[in-house]
Write the C-alpha coordinates for this entry.
Amino acid sequence: MLEREMEDALNKQINEELYSAYLYLSMSAYFESLGLSGFAKWMKIQSKEELKHAMKFFDYIVLQNGTVKLLPIKEPVHSWDSVLRAVESAYQHEVYITSKIYELVDLSQKLGDKATENFLQWFVEEQVEEEKNSYDLLNKVKMVEKNVAALIQLDSIVSNRKED
Ligand code: FEO
Protein backbone atom coordinates (compact mmCIF):
# COMPACT_ATOMS: atom_id res chain seq x y z
CA MET A 1 0.00 0.00 0.00
CA LEU A 2 1.37 3.38 -0.97
CA GLU A 3 0.83 6.59 0.91
CA ARG A 4 -0.62 9.34 -1.25
CA GLU A 5 2.55 11.46 -1.10
CA MET A 6 4.64 8.52 -2.30
CA GLU A 7 2.17 7.61 -5.03
CA ASP A 8 2.17 11.20 -6.34
CA ALA A 9 5.97 11.30 -6.36
CA LEU A 10 6.19 7.97 -8.22
CA ASN A 11 3.67 9.21 -10.78
CA LYS A 12 5.82 12.33 -11.28
CA GLN A 13 8.81 10.06 -11.86
CA ILE A 14 6.91 8.19 -14.60
CA ASN A 15 6.61 11.58 -16.26
CA GLU A 16 10.33 12.33 -15.77
CA GLU A 17 11.23 9.02 -17.41
CA LEU A 18 8.81 9.57 -20.30
CA TYR A 19 10.24 13.06 -20.78
CA SER A 20 13.72 11.49 -20.81
CA ALA A 21 12.56 9.16 -23.60
CA TYR A 22 11.20 12.18 -25.49
CA LEU A 23 14.41 14.17 -24.99
CA TYR A 24 16.64 11.37 -26.27
CA LEU A 25 14.34 10.72 -29.21
CA SER A 26 14.61 14.43 -30.02
CA MET A 27 18.41 14.12 -29.86
CA SER A 28 18.17 11.09 -32.14
CA ALA A 29 16.25 13.17 -34.68
CA TYR A 30 18.82 15.99 -34.35
CA PHE A 31 21.68 13.57 -35.06
CA GLU A 32 19.78 12.12 -38.04
CA SER A 33 19.51 15.68 -39.40
CA LEU A 34 23.31 15.96 -39.16
CA GLY A 35 23.80 12.64 -40.96
CA LEU A 36 25.23 11.04 -37.81
CA SER A 37 23.26 7.81 -37.87
CA GLY A 38 25.46 6.14 -35.22
CA PHE A 39 24.74 8.83 -32.63
CA ALA A 40 21.08 8.76 -33.71
CA LYS A 41 20.94 5.01 -33.05
CA TRP A 42 22.65 5.41 -29.66
CA MET A 43 20.05 7.97 -28.61
CA LYS A 44 17.15 5.90 -29.94
CA ILE A 45 18.30 2.95 -27.82
CA GLN A 46 18.62 5.32 -24.85
CA SER A 47 15.08 6.53 -25.47
CA LYS A 48 13.81 2.94 -25.34
CA GLU A 49 15.69 2.43 -22.06
CA GLU A 50 13.78 5.35 -20.59
CA LEU A 51 10.45 3.85 -21.64
CA LYS A 52 11.44 0.71 -19.76
CA HIS A 53 12.24 2.83 -16.69
CA ALA A 54 8.84 4.52 -16.92
CA MET A 55 7.16 1.10 -17.12
CA LYS A 56 9.01 -0.13 -14.03
CA PHE A 57 7.44 2.72 -12.04
CA PHE A 58 4.06 2.11 -13.72
CA ASP A 59 4.12 -1.61 -12.84
CA TYR A 60 5.27 -0.93 -9.28
CA ILE A 61 2.40 1.49 -8.59
CA VAL A 62 -0.07 -1.11 -9.94
CA LEU A 63 1.57 -3.85 -7.85
CA GLN A 64 1.05 -1.70 -4.75
CA ASN A 65 -2.63 -1.21 -5.62
CA GLY A 66 -1.97 2.43 -6.36
CA THR A 67 -3.35 4.60 -9.15
CA VAL A 68 -1.21 5.47 -12.14
CA LYS A 69 -1.76 9.04 -13.33
CA LEU A 70 -0.14 9.98 -16.61
CA LEU A 71 0.78 13.66 -16.74
CA PRO A 72 1.48 15.89 -19.77
CA ILE A 73 4.93 15.42 -21.24
CA LYS A 74 6.70 18.72 -21.90
CA GLU A 75 8.12 19.50 -25.31
CA PRO A 76 11.84 18.75 -25.56
CA VAL A 77 14.43 20.96 -27.25
CA HIS A 78 14.66 20.12 -30.97
CA SER A 79 18.20 21.17 -31.79
CA TRP A 80 21.50 21.95 -30.12
CA ASP A 81 24.43 24.18 -31.08
CA SER A 82 26.74 21.23 -31.67
CA VAL A 83 27.17 17.51 -31.15
CA LEU A 84 29.14 18.35 -28.01
CA ARG A 85 26.32 20.51 -26.61
CA ALA A 86 23.75 17.77 -27.23
CA VAL A 87 25.84 15.10 -25.52
CA GLU A 88 26.60 17.49 -22.63
CA SER A 89 22.85 17.99 -22.20
CA ALA A 90 22.35 14.22 -22.13
CA TYR A 91 24.91 13.86 -19.34
CA GLN A 92 23.47 16.78 -17.36
CA HIS A 93 20.02 15.28 -17.73
CA GLU A 94 21.18 12.00 -16.22
CA VAL A 95 22.69 13.86 -13.25
CA TYR A 96 19.31 15.58 -12.82
CA ILE A 97 17.47 12.22 -12.96
CA THR A 98 19.82 10.82 -10.34
CA SER A 99 18.84 13.73 -8.05
CA LYS A 100 15.15 12.89 -8.61
CA ILE A 101 15.76 9.23 -7.69
CA TYR A 102 17.57 10.33 -4.53
CA GLU A 103 14.63 12.56 -3.62
CA LEU A 104 12.33 9.53 -3.97
CA VAL A 105 14.61 7.47 -1.71
CA ASP A 106 14.59 10.30 0.85
CA LEU A 107 10.79 10.44 0.75
CA SER A 108 10.43 6.65 1.11
CA GLN A 109 12.70 6.82 4.18
CA LYS A 110 10.79 9.75 5.64
CA LEU A 111 7.53 7.78 5.27
CA GLY A 112 9.07 4.54 6.55
CA ASP A 113 8.06 2.90 3.23
CA LYS A 114 10.56 0.02 3.19
CA ALA A 115 9.06 -1.66 0.11
CA THR A 116 9.45 1.46 -2.02
CA GLU A 117 12.90 2.16 -0.62
CA ASN A 118 13.88 -1.36 -1.65
CA PHE A 119 12.26 -0.99 -5.10
CA LEU A 120 14.22 2.23 -5.67
CA GLN A 121 17.59 0.56 -5.08
CA TRP A 122 17.47 -0.80 -8.66
CA PHE A 123 17.27 2.80 -9.89
CA VAL A 124 20.07 3.97 -7.60
CA GLU A 125 22.34 1.38 -9.24
CA GLU A 126 20.96 2.02 -12.71
CA GLN A 127 21.74 5.74 -12.44
CA VAL A 128 25.42 4.98 -11.80
CA GLU A 129 25.36 3.13 -15.14
CA GLU A 130 23.31 5.82 -16.87
CA GLU A 131 25.66 8.61 -15.81
CA LYS A 132 28.70 6.56 -16.82
CA ASN A 133 27.32 5.78 -20.29
CA SER A 134 26.62 9.40 -21.13
CA TYR A 135 29.84 10.61 -19.47
CA ASP A 136 31.88 8.18 -21.58
CA LEU A 137 30.13 9.38 -24.71
CA LEU A 138 30.75 13.00 -23.71
CA ASN A 139 34.47 12.37 -23.19
CA LYS A 140 34.78 10.68 -26.58
CA VAL A 141 33.06 13.60 -28.30
CA LYS A 142 35.37 16.05 -26.50
CA MET A 143 38.38 14.18 -27.91
CA VAL A 144 37.23 14.43 -31.53
CA GLU A 145 35.28 17.68 -31.31
CA LYS A 146 37.23 19.64 -33.92
CA ASN A 147 38.15 16.76 -36.21
CA VAL A 148 35.34 15.89 -38.63
CA ALA A 149 36.99 12.70 -39.88
CA ALA A 150 37.42 11.47 -36.30
CA LEU A 151 33.81 12.42 -35.49
CA ILE A 152 32.57 10.33 -38.43
CA GLN A 153 34.71 7.45 -37.20
CA LEU A 154 33.26 7.85 -33.72
CA ASP A 155 29.78 7.84 -35.25
CA SER A 156 30.55 4.43 -36.66
CA ILE A 157 31.85 3.20 -33.28
CA VAL A 158 28.82 4.39 -31.27
CA SER A 159 26.52 2.71 -33.80
CA ASN A 160 27.64 -0.59 -32.25
CA ARG A 161 25.52 0.04 -29.17
CA LYS A 162 23.10 -2.85 -28.66
CA GLU A 163 19.74 -2.86 -26.95
CA ASP A 164 19.73 -4.50 -23.51
FE1 FEO B 1 15.80 6.73 -16.61
FE2 FEO B 1 18.41 7.67 -17.96
O1 FEO B 1 17.42 7.49 -16.43
Helices lie at 4-33, 37-63, 83-111, 114-144, 148-158. The mean pLDDT is 97. The domain at 4-158 is CATH 1.20.1260.10 (Ferritin). The CA atoms of residues 64 and 153 lie 48 Å apart.
